[in-house]
Amino acid sequence: MRVSRQLELLDRLVGADVNQPWNFAPASMRNPAAAYTDADRFARELKVLFRERPQFVGLTGECREPGAFIAQNLGGVPIAVVRQADGSLRAIVNACRHRGAALLEGNGKGGMRRIVCPYHGWTYETDGTLVNRPASAGGFDDLAATCDLHLHQRAVAEKYGMIFVHPTSNQSFDVDDILSGAEDELADYGLADYVQVETRVNTWKMNWKLFLDTFTESYHIRWLHKNSIAPYFLCDLIFDAFGPHPRTIGLRKDVVDQFKDKPREEWRLLPFSTTQYFLVPNGLLVYQLDHIEVWRVTPIDVGSCRVETSLFAPSPPTTDKARNYWKRNLDILLDVTGKEDFPLQERVQANLASGALPEVVYGRIEPALVHLHASINAAVDAPAGR
To answer: Rounded to 5 degrees, what angle do the CA atoms 373, 378, 382 make?
Structure first.
């Protein structure tokens, strides 16, 4: 984030009582419990939010070299993004045209020359072109006159070091339109230069939105995290909205110390902050002092989801010391969320599913949470075709 933008954001803290919440939404919000528990509502979310619009897939550093790939489930659609020899990307439906077997799994770092189906050996170029049906003895030749059997293509775009795919369309799209203004900040981070260090995957018994809810407010920190991170952080966030996407900035308590003894031009935000960009519906990109975290959520059903957490470093770790340093960072992150945040959200899910609560309440003290759910509800409740 450029210095001028950091100063603009820090100006909001001048004169504020940083020991009390200062960043309020215009109004509180009541959201029906059914938003987290109703199967029909979940099906509508999957269609409108996850299948009918481009989705965040990952960072350039996950798919940098020719033959590298990222395999993801986007709204139930199996997608693989593959780096081509000319540096471009192709997004394919990750299912063999023969019998629908999955072709690729997880991430591949590069060097793949062709895609080979593990079921019957059908072989494709990395762009999805079918080149061989081994040992088929001409048994499929009669299909050539009526249909092609190349892998289905989907639209993919890469910009600012981020990769997006439309899971159900091959019509091109503009990343700037998706980011709705957040690109002005995201472009400053040089995301394309970051290197993937490690990814860990967990499954949680909670609605996919509860994953996002976890990160939208710091109101909970002084209670839920009182024995871990609470002593170091302020009780409020800096919040802005970019279309449906909140951006929140968590602040260390010592951020205000520089106001006392430094001129404004020497103030800095990033050394004292955790900056979170929500990429609604499925992504969260977090800038920390010396690394990037990427979270991706995949809905499984109305009451469960799959969460991937990846850590990216500014350069490849080449020593045991460096590798251990990044491992500890990821350990600490997942220790807090995995022992404090997400188990609590699983209990929230169970309580809502019991039918005992008709609604949940988001207060003015939680502006990013209000904005997130107002945006989701507006999209899901909009008439078809809008």
So the answer is: 150
Task: Quote the tokens at residue 324.
Answer: 């251990």
User: Which whole number is the average pLDDT over 340-368?
Assistant: 97
> Is residue 354 pLDDT above 80, yes or no?
yes
210 and 126, same domain (yes or no): no
Task: Return d(Cα 174, Cα 293) in angstroms, integer.
Answer: 24
Q: Is the distance from CB of 115 to CB of 103 less than 8 angstroms?
A: yes
**Chain center to CA of 373:** 16
- Domain stops at, among 129, 152, 172: 172
Q: What is the pLDDT of residues 290-338, one digit of tens each?
A: 999 999 999 999 999 999 999 999 999 999 999 999 999 999 999 999 9
Is the peptide bond prior to 358 cis by the omega test (within 30 degrees of 0)? Answer: no
User: In this structure, what token pair is assigned to residue 376?
Assistant: 């989701």
As a whole number, the mean pLDDT across the chain is 94
Report the 3 state secondary structure along the chain. Answer: CCHHHHHHHHHCCCCCCCCCCCCCCCCCEEEECHHHHCHHHHHHHHHHHHHCCCEEEEEHHHCCCCCCEEEEEECCEEEEEEECCCCCEEEEECCCCCCCCCCCCCEECCCCCEEECCCCCCEEECCCCEEECCCCCCCCHHHCCCCCCCCCEECEEEECCEEEECCCCCCCCCHHHHHCCCHHHHHHHCHHHCEEEEEEEEEECCCHHHHHHHHHCCCCHHHHCCCCCHHHEEEEEEEEEECCEEEEEEEEHHHHHHHHHCCHHHCCCHHHEEEEEEECCCEEEEECCCCEEEEEEEEEECCEEEEEEEEEECCCCCCHHHHHHHHHHHHHHHHHHHHHHHHHHHHHHHHHHCCCCCEEEECCCCHHHHHHHHHHHHHHHCCCCC
* Domain stops at, among 143, 172, 201: 172
- Chain segment 32-69, per-residue pLDDT in tens: 999 999 999 999 999 999 999 999 999 999 999 999 99
Domain that holds residue 368: 1-52+179-386
